Fold this sequence. Notes:
Elements: E1 5-10, E2 13-18, E3 24-28, H1 35-45, H2 50-58, E4 82-86, E5 89-96, E6 100-102, E7 106-108, E8 118-124, E9 129-136, E10 142-146, E11 151-152, E12 160-163, H3 168-179, H4 183-196, E13 200-206, E14 209-214, E15 221-222, H5 228-241, E16 246-249, H6 258-270, E17 276-280, H7 284-289, E18 300-307, E19 313-318, H8 320-328
Helix pairs in contact: 3-5, 4-5
Amino acid sequence: MIKNLEITHFKGIKNLKLDNLSRINIFVGKPNTCKSTILEAICLYFAQNQFDLRDILDVRAMSFESDCFLSLFHNYNASKNIVINADNNALSITIDNNYIMIAGNKTYPSDDESLPNRITLDYHNREMTFTRNIAKYDQVQFEFLMGNKGSSIDYKSSCVQLISQNNVLDKTLKNLTQILESKKKFNELKEVCKKFSLNIESLELVKNKIIIRKKHIDKAINFKLSGHGFQKYIAIQSCILSGKKYICIDEIENGLHFESIKMVLQNLIDCDKNIQFFITTHNEEILNNLTKINLNKNEVSLFNIFENKNGDIESVRFSQDELLQNLSVENELRG
């Protein structure tokens, strides 16, 4: 798990330190204070391949844009590297404004030569340093390269996942594909469904489509027709069952009925203790329900993210005891 995180020169963040992270970390604050950007930085730190990068860009529908790489840099200034440091293991990101090299020694020019079309991700820890290059050579195609030689490499499955309102269906489909390969996981998924509603018997994949089996209904129901709360619940649970170790949930309250919030939070507490969560919320119900669930000691931290008088992003941390104490006297913690 990550204990300390420092983000430098990434999007709206000039420099931000988040120390003493817990297993469950909740970020609150006023609008436009880079709460979602923190989740994106965490996902970028653990990015394994070009698909992970596209997922991060797609949170803001940027993967089709010619300035998608430049948009990652603070104030669009690529003269300074992005650096994401987690427990003294650092990711440094630079860009290349020139032509890119694709496997097979074929070159492709950028659509706009003033914009970068390749980024380099350098990972540093005590044992080793390695480099990953990700290139974009047209509106939709990304290439994953090793070093500067232009040779493609195999990608690894990612240990991190970002859940946002616009990717719930896509992420659930990918996770279910993996879950349904295991009978044990499939049975666990059935129990997850019943916990939400006793009328839901199971989820299945038929021709790359998620369907719901419900009691007293002969025909299967398309998952897309279910409520947003159930979709969000399954998206979170499918992340857990598919073995993700770092789960980022943007605006966890979106789609959830107030009666489901306590159950969802308790599920996060009760799941595999090796999974770390990073959650943003604007919702008072989310915070108030923390006083109604069974918390383990020092399991939750809350970070109030705010913009200081100089326009820089800072944070104030509340320990679990401080959080519960403030909630008990109805103090406003959301900024």
